[in-house]
């Protein structure tokens, strides 16, 4: 009997201890995934919309370092790039002209944009496009980029692509867009084009191009004309995307037309 009573007493202590933190008493742990995020019981990756809108612990504004994509030096791997034409002839040569370094964003915790004038940076890309028979000309480095960052054990996608363009010679396009395309050019892939904001001119200027939200089929999927993958119908995945820059003309300039576009200091921001 005494043994039984002893066991019951011990059991009562255990019940009392475990009952102290019931389901209505949440315990916050910094850096841990919140409900619905990746965990041992939920293997779904926590890739969210731009800026970390998918819930969980998000980084404060301007605290994530930019992702340098192209510093302006010709090469075959990030942070260098050599551009080729997709639907027109395009030849990329190294230019010594540099874009200016962007100003740091405002507080609360500003990060410093990449410096396009570092010792390792030889200048910018000077891409000469010829035989322009379509109203959209696409150029690309053909590299595949991962446009995400990790914070608090979770993965978020960058919200904005920053690029610096100039048109020092030739026919001037009316606008510039960015097109994000999967490596798979089938219905299982994605193709999303977004309009870039900036002022086209002979001198380098800063342009901003939205990066689509992850895991949705965008309304802009295969928006055209002259998209890379007209059969694309799947969701945008920022962990593996190619980037095309699109020169938009009011009408096809013609076989004899040329455009020189400078590209420098391309990076993604939070």
Give an overview of the whole structure:
It is built from one helix and 13 strands, in the order H-E-E-E-E-E-E-E-E-E-E-E-E-E. With 270 residues, the protein is mainly β. It has a single domain (67-269), classed as Galactose-binding domain-like (Jelly Rolls, Sandwich), CATH 2.60.120.260. Strands 1, 3, 4, 8, 11 and 13 form a six-stranded antiparallel beta sheet that branches. Strand 6 and strand 7 form a beta hairpin. It is globular and about 55 Å long. The model is unreliable at 1-54 (pLDDT under 50).
Specify Rg, calculated over alpha carbons.
25 Å
> What share of residues are in beta strands?
25-35%
What's the tally of helices?
A: 1
Largest sheet: 6 strands, antiparallel
The appropriate CATH architecture is Sandwich
Q: Please tell me the total number of domains.
A: 1
Helix content: under 10%
What would you call the shape? globular
CATH C-level = Mainly Beta
What fold name goes in the CATH topology slot? Jelly Rolls
What's the average pLDDT?
79
- Secondary structure tally: strands: 13
SS content category: mainly beta
Uncertain runs with pLDDT below 50, 5 residues or more? Answer: 1-54
The fourth-level CATH homologous superfamily is: Galactose-binding domain-like
